[in-house]
TrEMBL record:
SUPFAM superfamilies (alphabetical): ARM repeat
Protein name, per record: Armadillo repeat-containing protein 8
GO biological process: nucleus-vacuole junction assembly
Superkingdom of origin organism: Eukaryota
GO MF, one annotated term: protein-membrane adaptor activity
Keyword Transmembrane among record annotations: no
Amino acid sequence: REGKDSIIENVDDSSESEIVEEIQQTLTVLEMLYRCTTTQLSNSFEKIGKELLPLLLSMLEDCIHKHERRDGPVFITSDQYSKGLDPNNVIMTKGTKIMAHLARTTQCLVPLANHRGFLSILRRISVTATLPDKSRFSALWTLGNLGCDADNMIMMANHPGLLDSLLEVADRDRSPEARCHAVKAMMNLAWRPENKTPMSEIPRLLSSMLRMLLYSGIVQARRHAASCLRFLASAPPKTKLRIVLHDNGSILSSVVNAASSDKDRYVRDCATGILSNLSCKETSKVMGEHPGLFDILAKVAVGDGGKASKIAAAALCSLSEHIQSANTKVLSNPLTPRKIDKGVVLVRSGGSSQIQSDGI
């Protein structure tokens, strides 16, 4: 069958059926072989990567076109028919899994992300909800791993449509697993300092992370969302203020509640880190006037003496200094923190009781 958008040209229907079946078997074997160690994967990619990637992308592109058009003959052997297997879905599933295997090794991350068309095909697969779930999960997982390399982060954050597609999956996908993978990918991109400000300027992204933090039934997804907000919060002061004021302070309120009473210790510690990262001169007035914020930080600061306690104590010191320097009165909270020597002393207004934490 002739066609510029097909990898199989100038063959009759019976020949194409045989070729499609051979492609499936080849990809199936290669996917099984690529369950090897990362060292073996790296060696294989070095030897055949330049030839393999264009073939994979062409096959996946062909499958997507057939899926979108749903025209032309679909060649299914009797054995496949009895098992309900669509050859295009098999090629899609195995092809994306091979990509995911390659993304397990650090030596492949930059070459993969920079290969022409690689990010685009992953984006299209991940956002097309009617494609097989396994292929979409593999595509999203691969995007998440590619975003672990600092050399890929800026390019990926600026790749046309990539963040929008990840947000679409995170907000609307029917699969909790897909949403978790999408949030992880955005979390990795938010780690890069150059990405913090532009990503925080996307209101939908902030709202998506907040919803995932509050409502996701997957613990790991909530952790990814909390980490993403923590990374974004360690941004320039104007960006911090934007996050604090987002949606009438909904992020600040939710993070304070998470630091206080979330069932997951990781999320509680991460929420404390968010509050600490947001603390600066520009945000001190809004944060200082937020009901309960000082109480929560004080509670964490005098907790078990772990890392979160030190982070909370540092946040109290920072807010106290900025508030005092600006002569801001915090009327809504009975706790006024101040830094004394190497420790943090929390003095209750109108009382003599004092609570002291270890020095930081």
